[in-house]
Specification:
The structure is a homodimer of 301-residue chains. The first copy, chain A, is α+β, with helices and mostly antiparallel strands. Helices cover 32% and strands 27% of the residues of chain A. Chain A has 9 helices and 12 strands. In chain A, strands 7-9-6-10-8-11-12 form a 7-stranded mixed sheet. In chain A, a hairpin with a 5-residue loop joins strand 11 and strand 12.
Chain lengths: 301, 301
């Protein structure tokens, strides 16, 4: 079956612009437009990142989108994707092909191409994607540039991603970030794959600055009667794949309105960077609230 | 544990020459010396590619070496490696670290750096490596350039790789290929990961040329009394990770002797490229011999 998949990939994904494309050789040979590239890999595992019975199209779509989201968080453009697949016996050729159809769907809005892969027999489905991107204009966005006085921004909604299936259908914020970089002087950025709380904590720690977060400004994916319950879900559920970033902007209200109009996605100013350290949360009455940290972890020890 | 691994990686593998290195951000940012890069990914799975009880150092060493071998087969130099790890509960921090120590050992003879990774919980060990390389000098070596009249070459010995543990300790032929390219006008090349037979068949098919192979010239890793049994093992056992290539060379005997002296590895001329199609095998008396094709496959459908 491996030869069948490779043959199908070579026919379906071959691109004359790529010097040595997928399925042809020991490695792909590809062109690079600039002298630096972005590199990131993500492993998705059956039972952890998707259900066993999930439609393979959704699995492929998620795998590619998770990688694309990493490039968005760096302020980059995606160029190339490589996919390693571990497939169990119950997966036939048509299921394997569906995974690649999902990958193709996720890549289609961008110029990114599938250029490499490996397929091996496994006891359950494993999908590992590696993405190559680059910074088209401006500087790379790291996690460490937040400065006191910056606003804290977030795209989209948070919480209940797994329950609502959002993690299978989210849009990697590539085009959104390209737009935002022109409107906002972004100082640090990260995607919220492990939850909003983890992103805020990481940006704060890596930047060496304190974050004050207005919980009332965080948009929930699912409306809840209990305010704190909704915020807790937004902070810790994870798998939102939205952008969390800091920066300065002459007219944040107008920028948010324009952004929402253009992308049909909210842009929220959820807080302010201050001197000091740590992330503090405040309710609508500006009283500090504390949450039990239940950040999403793969390892529980 | 994921944070512990990321922290350890960032401390152990951090390199000031890399703009954004491992464990720091959503993606790594790295420099590229030329306008084209080589890309390849390989997935290794517990039970298929290594034993469950195997020393994690060996697993890491093999994973990185398999990727390095792909770059060697293209005539390239390795630059960067990314590693995704799926780890079961029985794997503690020290086991995970051992995998990375094996990776470091495999990379150490080269300038290649570990720049990215992902670590997730899995029911068994999965290691996926993606390598970025480049062509320092000359052209890329593909599988499709063999021409009638070319000699067929192979480095090293074949067969019994799994039984002897060779697949855990093989040397990716990066430096060997760099040397060989200067001595031989190489027309096509491939590494023998799925066995010598699969490599010969693929080079022949992709080049649109026939291959005549002199079985008596193939070097066996383990001596066997039965000639045909030894050749069968060399052709089909797989996991040799030697280079198989075609090309022209003014003095092949001297080149082989010099190569062997320099690298302490044999270089054999195992046949000749002819017009036509297909791979034919001949014994020491130049009689054609046939082998039952048992090429290594991951899927047995």
């Amino acid at each position: 079956m491996e030869q069948k998949i490779i043959g199908w990939l070579a026919r379906s994904f071959l691109d004359k612009k790529i010097p040595v494309g997928i399925g042809l050789d020991d490695a792909a040979l590809v062109d690079i437009p600039k002298k630096q590239i972005l590199l990131s890999c993500d492993m998705l595992i059956e039972g952890t990142h998707f259900r066993s019975k999930e439609d393979p199209v959704h699995i492929g779509r998620k795998a590619a989108s998770v990688s694309l989201s990493d490039i968005a968080a760096m302020g980059g453009e995606p160029l190339y994707l490589l996919v390693s697949l571990g497939l169990p016996r119950r997966y036939g050729f048509s299921d394997a092909r569906k995974i690649f159809q999902g990958i193709r769907a996720a890549l289609s809005p961008y110029r990114a191409k599938l250029v490499g892969g490996d397929t091996v027999r496994s006891r359950f489905v494993v999908v590992d994607t590696t993405i190559v991107g680059y910074i088209k204009e401006g500087k790379v966005l790291t996690r460490s540039g937040a400065r006191p006085g910056d606003s804290i921004f977030a795209t989209g909604c948070f919480g209940d991603s797994l329950r609502t299936g959002w993690h299978y259908r989210f849009t990697p914020r590539i085009k959104e970030m390209e737009y935002l970089r022109k409107k906002i002087r972004i100082t640090s950025a990260m995607d919220a794959s492990d939850g909003l709380h983890a992103s805020l904590r990481t940006l704060s720690q890596r930047s060496g600055a304190g974050f004050d977060v207005a919980c009332g400004e965080i948009k929930s994916r699912v409306a809840k009667k209990d305010f704190l319950l909704a915020v807790d879900s937004a902070l810790f559920d994870g798998e939102d794949f939205e952008l969390v970033f800091t920066g300065r902007c002459p007219d944040a209200v107008r920028t948010a309105r324009d952004f929402e109009k253009k992308f049909k996605v909210p842009l929220s100013v959820i807080g302010k960077v201050r001197k000091g350290a740590g992330v503090k949360f405040f309710d609508r009455e500006s009283r500090e609230v504390r949450f039990e940290n239940r950040e999403f972890r793969h390892f529980t020890e």
